[in-house]
Each structure stands twice: as C-alpha cells, then as structure tokens.
Specification:
ABC transporter transmembrane region fold; Rossmann fold; 3 domains; binds adenosine-5'-diphosphate; ATP-binding; transmembrane; EC 3.6.3.44; ABC1_TM_dom; nucleotide-binding
C-alpha cells in the first residue's frame, strides 16, 4: 500500500470515529493516567532504598507499601474504564462499517455479484471487520499505552542520570532497526495468511453450496484435492508467520539482555564513583525492565495495525465501487402506471462481453396485453425481462414504461409496479406467509390467502400442519419444485402489480397444476400487462401476441393462429415438435 493510500484509510477510519469522539478522548485521557502510574511505580524503588532502607525509616516504608497498593487499585479502575470504552467504541464503529457495507452491497447491480463471489463478500463483511475490531480494541490501545509509557520512562531516566541514559540509548537504535525489519516482514506474511484463508473460505463456500453437483458427479476426490491444495497453501503461509514470530522473541530478548548488562556494568561504576545512589540505579534498572515489553510489543502491534489497514483497504475498496445502475438525481417517482411497455431499438451486451445479446430489438405492448416470448435457450428472453426490471441498462436504444425511459424513473417506484416471477425460485427460511408477503409488508392474512389461491398454492399450504405459519427449510418440511414455484408466484401476485413478468414461471408445474394455474392466471391477468417467457408453447396459446426470438432478434411475431398458419414457420415447427413429444410422453 502506498503512503497516500494509507493516509486516506486513516482519515476514513477517523471519520467513523467521529460520533464517538467524546468517548475516545475520555479513553485516551484514562490511557495517559494509566501510563503515568506505570511510570511512577519504579520510582517507588528509589524512595524505598534511598529514603526508607538506607535511612532505616519505618514510617516512609509503611507509606510506600500503602501507596503501592493504592496505585495499583487506581490503575486497575482506570484500565477497566479505558478498556471498556475502547471495546464500546470499536464495536460500534465496526457495526457502523458492517451496516454500511451491507446496505451498499444491496444497492449493487447484479453484475457486481457475478464479479465478486459470495465467499469473498462474506469474508469482507465478517473476517475483515473482525480483524479491524480486534486490532482497534486491543492492538491500538496497547500501542498508545506503550508509546506513552516509553516517553515517560525516557524522561525519568534522563532525569536520574543522563550519562547512563545516553549509554543505554546507544543500544536502542539496534532494537528499533530489528523491530522495524521484523514488523515489515510480519506484515507481508500476515497479509498472505488472510488472502489464503479467504481462498479456503471461498472454496469451502462454493463446494458446500454445490454439494448436490459434487454428489451427482461423484467428484469427491477432485474437490478434496482442490481443497487440500488450497488448505496446504494456507498452512504454508501460517507456518512462515509462525517461524518469524518464533525468531522474534529470542532476538528481542537477547537485545534486552545486552541492554541490561550494559546498564549494570556502567551504572555500577557510577554508583561506586558516587555519581548515583543505589536507589537511582535500582529505579533505573526498574525503568529499563518496564520498557522492554512495550518495545518488544510495538513491533507486533505495528504489524497488527498494518494488517488492519489491509483489511480496511479491502473493505473500502468494495465501498468505493459506484453502482453502475443507480437513480438519477431527479428520478421520477411514478405513482400509478397504465402498463405500456416499449423496446425501442435496444442493443444490449453484458459487461465484459464482446457480443451483443439483444440486437436492435423493438416492440410495443399495450396496457392489458399478454405477450409471450419464445425461442431457443440463449436467445435473450430472460435478458428482456432483466432490462425491464432495470437489472441492466442497454448500451443503446431505450426501454420505456408508459412512455418513460426506465432510466428516468426511480428504481424503487418502477419495481413496485412490476411483479416478477423469476426462473430460479428463491425462498427465504421464514414462514410461508412471510415469503408470500415479502414485497408487501402491509399485507393482511386475507391478501396472503387470496394470492395463494390465485397461484393455486392455497390447497397444499392449507393441508400442512402449521398452514401458512410453516417455516421453509425447517426439519421435515419439504416442498416440491412446483410448490415452491407457486409460492414464488403468489409473492408476485400479492403486490397487485400493473405489469407481470413471468420467466419460465410454470416450468416446474405438473400438467394438472398448470392447467389450473392457467385458469387462475387468466383471471388475475385481466387489466394487467404481462410478459410470459415460456419454454412449453402449450402454455401461451392464449397470448395476444407471441414473439419468436432467436439470437437477440425477433424472427416471427403474431398470435398463435397467425404463427401456426405460416408455412415452415419456426414457431409452428417448434409447436408441432413439442406436441409430438407430448404424445410420446403420454404413451
Ligand atoms: P434465454 O432466456 O433466452 O435462455 P438469456 O437471456 O438468459 O437467454 O441469455 C442470453 C445470453 O446471454 C446467453 O448466451 C447467456 O449465456 C448470456 N448471459 C446471460 N446472463 C449473463 C450474464 N450475467 N453475464 C454474461 N452473459 C450472460
């Protein structure tokens, strides 16, 4: 990381601290007091030897013993307050960052989630914020305390004997050099550990979420091998850090011992020559004793802070991604719509792709019409739905609702009028009622039952022991693909949207459910504009218009009977093929 980047990260973190600045200043004040007491303690050695022991003064001895206890009591209380304050501040700051990250992530367009794996995002939100929290609640405190103590001690030892201090300081640069060098090495190694453990996490997440495929293709060995490889990489990184950490302590101890030996030797001479008292020397040695740990700790704390900076950098780099699709500043809040949809010479390709998926597509759907889009898979049918939902924006041309370009409308108000039943049924692990009323928080029980009835879901829900309160994903609760799909349809129905977008919504329904669903659909679709993407053509015969899409272009359009009258028409051929298949299937 460059210096400027690092500075930016510090400033950004400070901004998060702003709401808690009063507590932070209080915590810093307590830290100053704690280190003042730390620095005062070796001084009592001097008083003990010079004023109490040599002069044989029992009174001073008693006072000293009592004040020693007093000092530790006060230090304990102050440490508690300061520790608790810092835990309070860091946990709040981290929660703020986590909440911001979560909200930001939700605003990201779908394309963002294609680029960043779920594992990676989860690792940012949990691991990286955890590192920040740990380092700031303990590492930073210890660094501040150690620095303050070090400054205090240096002042005191100068005061006791500057010549001895100068001699001692001779050895300090050596220690500092070592600390710096180690700190740098530790930093790069620990960054690698984090990267490797994020890799392990990502692989684990991917395999667990695709366990059905792993079982289905019996690729256990392959996946175990992949996991083993990545896990070994992570172990290697940890071992390297372990080696560095293990060398760190003995080297620092040796440096410490050299310092103490020098102080003993030179300080002893100064006492013998009458330049210092025995108490001075003992206090001096006491001071050197209390700074060896802080000096030693500083290296690793600096390393930890670097590690936290790397974590913060990763978090901020996600927060800095501007959503490629967002509301205009003057976006229109559309209250009521009639339901007209228009594609005007729409050209669209997915980001990073070369080839256009939709090639100059134009069509118009009047309010209340039912349009069906059919064609081979990969033709771009779902993409049309995605553009109406504004999951993506076209590169040229426009998608209009009631004459408004969807880019001019606020996404929230646009999507309120769209009832989407996507291809992949996604249900949450809550009750059936909550799943159905997901997009309509003020839905009543009647609304939920109405939506379920229309979607032909009421009967199977009603038969369940807990009915609408059944929790999905609970032990023993199993739903078939068709049942899940009907719940998903009810979720769109309950919003009472002016525009219905059904993307292969009936693909998982069995024949009898489907004919019932068709009936219900015809009822519910009255007065609404509907686009049905369908694979099975038998389900869309009643549509006002059918578009046959191939390779991002409309190759045929018309009603079912118009298209069936076309000699060698693509629609007609596909329809006849499917009818034959159905006949064979029913034999
Ligand atoms: P259909 O619904 O007709 O089967 P889609 O609209 O889903 O077709 O997809 C059209 C083409 O766009 C396909 O070739 C598909 O591979 C590609 N595609 C779909 N989604 C993405 C995406 N997020 N990124 C890149 N390419 C995509």
């Amino acid at each position: 990381m460059k210096k400027k980047e690092l500075k930016d990260i510090y400033f950004r973190l400070l901004k998060y601290l702003k709401p808690y600045i009063k507590y932070f200043i209080l915590a810093l004040f307590f830290m100053c007091l704690v280190s003042a007491i730390m620095v005062a303690i070796p001084w009592t050695l001097k008083v003990l030897i010079d004023s109490a022991l040599i002069k044989k003064d029992a009174f001073i001895l008693n006072i000293l013993a009592l004040s020693m206890i007093g000092l530790y009591v006060i230090k304990g209380i102050l440490s508690f307050c300061q520790n608790y304050l810092m835990i309070y501040i860091t946990n709040n700051v981290i929660s703020d960052i986590r909440e911001q990250f979560f909200s930001h992530m939700q605003l990201m367009p779908l394309e963002f989630f294609k680029r960043h794996s779920t594992g990676e995002l989860m690792s940012r939100l949990t691991n990286d914020t955890f590192i920040l929290q740990q380092v700031f609640s303990t590492g930073l405190v210890s660094l501040v305390l150690d620095t303050l103590t070090l400054i205090g001690v240096v002042c005191f030892i100068f005061y006791i004997d500057w010549k001895l201090t100068m001699a001692t300081i001779f050895i300090l640069p050596l220690a500092f050099l070592a600390v710096q060098k180690f700190g740098r090495r530790l930093k790069s190694v620990s960054y690698r550990i984090q990267e490797r453990s994020a890799d392990v996490f990502a692989v684990l997440q991917e395999i667990l979420s695709s366990i059905k495929i792993v079982h289905g293709f019996a690729t256990y060995e392959k996946e175990s091998e992949r996991f083993k490889k990545i896990n070994r990489e992570s172990v290697k990184a940890v071992l390297k850090a372990g080696r560095l950490n293990s060398i760190y302590t003995p080297v620092m101890e040796l440096l410490g011992a050299m310092g103490i030996a020098a102080v003993f030797w030179y300080g002893g001479y100064r006492v013998i020559n009458g330049h210092m008292t025995i108490g001075d020397l003992m206090a001096f040695i006491g001071y050197i004793g209390i700074i060896t740990t802080p000096v030693r700790r500083m290296g690793s704390n600096l390393g930890n802070i670097q590690q936290a900076m790397a974590a913060a950098h990763r978090i901020f780099s996600v927060l800095d991604i501007e959503p490629s699709i967002k509301d205009k500043e003057d976006a229109i809040e559309i209250k009521e719509i009639k339901g007209m949809i228009e594609f005007d010479n729409v050209w669209f390709k997915y980001p990073d792709d070369e080839e256009y998926i939709l090639k100059g597509l134009s069509f118009k759907i009047m309010p209340g019409q039912v349009f069906a889009i059919v064609g081979p898979s990969g033709a771009g049918k779902t993409t049309i739905i995605d553009l109406i939902m504004r999951f993506y924006d076209p590169q040229s041309g426009s998608v209009k609702i009631d004459g408004y370009d969807v880019r001019d409308l606020s996404m929230r108000s646009l999507r309120r009028h769209l009832g989407l039943v996507p291809q992949d049924v996604i249900l949450f692990n809550t009750t059936i009622s909550e799943n159905i009323s997901y997009g309509k928080s003020d839905a009543t029980t009647e609304d939920i039952i109405w939506a379920a009835k229309i979607s032909n879901a009421h009967d199977f829900i009603d038969k369940m022991e807990k009915g609408y309160d059944t929790i999905l994903g609970e032990r023993g609760v199993r739903f078939s693909g068709g049942e899940r799909q009907r719940i998903s349809i009810a979720r769109a129905v309950i919003k009472n949207p002016k525009i219905f977008l059904l993307d292969e919504a009936t693909s998982n329904l069995d024949a009898s459910s489907e004919s019932q669903f068709q009936e219900a659909l015809k009822r519910v679709l009255k007065g609404r504009t509907t686009i049905i993407v369908a694979h099975r053509l038998s389900t869309i015969i009643f549509a006002d218009k059918i578009l046959y899409l191939e390779n991002g272009k409309i190759v045929e359009e018309g009603t079912h009977s118009e298209l069936m009258n076309k000699e060698n028409g693509k629609y007609r051929m596909l329809f006849e093929l499917q009818t034959k298949e159905n006949m064979f299937a029913s034999l």
